[in-house]
Design a protein that fits this description.
The complex is a heterodimer of chains A (112) and B (135). Chain A is mainly α and 112 residues long. Helices cover 72% and strands 0% of the residues of chain A. Chain A is elongated, with a radius of gyration of 16 Å. Chain B has one domain. Helix content of chain B is 76%, strand content 0%. The chains are: A mainly alpha (112), B mainly alpha (135).
Chain lengths: 112, 135
């Protein structure tokens, strides 16, 4: 894929990924076949900020974990009142990173 | 989620659960704090699993009907608290990962729409009951 498209993707989607993943993504996209551009462009990523708001409001019910696809952890949080209140607070700090990791996994699935 | 992270999380959660239960079991009735539930403390509405501790304490005393009335999720919590540590011990000692495989399969099955809808409805019903009981 040409560098113009790659840079366009990086610029418009950088907030969905960890900053240390960006060079790797750029490299992978440059090597990628042009036919996959359409698919990559239409990928929907979860916004980490949205997840942070959800975690703040209904984190004790585990909704944030359900949303990013960690169903098992979500149930664990739901059944223990947000891990006795502690896990819910810890997750306020972890959820943005976890969301970005999930986005990265989603992109990797399309690339390979 | 890797095997080791899941196991560490489960160990920490079971330890916390047992510490919490034992502390609640031995603290006199008049010294008990109201609740650790963030949701309840902030909104004053009980969350779906509020009352699990009281329910498990009733089970330990043998009052099963009372426990069912307070919160049926107490039975689930009680079963999990007994099974998970034993299973973890078995897995760690035998260097296997049976619990992790079961967890992955459960996570996959629970996401299927019919099962998910039934579970969500059950939790919501329990939640409405909790609010009605004013736990």
């Amino acid at each position: 894929m040409d560098s113009q498209k790659t840079d366009l993707f990086i610029i418009s989607n950088s907030k969905y990924f960890e900053s240390h993943h960006l060079p790797q993504i750029r490299e992978q996209l440059l090597k990628l076949d042009n036919s996959k551009w359409g698919m990559i462009q239409t990928l929907q990523f979860q916004d980490p900020t949205t997840l942070l708001i959800v975690s703040l409001l209904v984190g004790t019910l585990g909704i944030d974990r359900f949303m990013i696809g960690d169903t098992g952890l979500g149930i664990g949080k739901l059944l223990t009142c947000g891990g006795f209140g502690i896990w819910a607070i810890v997750d306020l700090f972890l959820i943005m990173g976890a969301t970005k990791e999930k986005n990265m996994a989603k992109l990797q699935q399309v690339i390979y | 989620m890797t095997r080791n992270r899941l196991y560490i999380l489960l160990i920490v959660m079971s330890l916390l659960g047992y510490t919490w239960l034992i502390s609640q079991f031995f603290i006199a009735e008049n010294l008990k704090t109201n609740s650790v539930c963030l949701f309840k403390n902030i909104t004053d509405i009980p969350c779906p699993s509020c009352g699990s501790t009281r329910s498990i304490l009733e089970i330990l005393k043998g009052n099963f009907l009372e426990a069912l009335y307070i919160n049926p999720l107490g039975f689930l919590g009680f079963a999990v608290l007994i099974i998970i540590p034993l299973w973890l011990l078995f897995d760690v000692l035998q260097k296997k990962h049976t619990l992790y495989l079961v967890f992955l399969r459960l996570e996959k099955n629970i996401k299927k729409t019919p099962i998910a809808i039934i579970l969500i409805l059950l939790i919501i019903t329990n939640w409405i009951w909790n609010i009605a009981k004013n736990l």
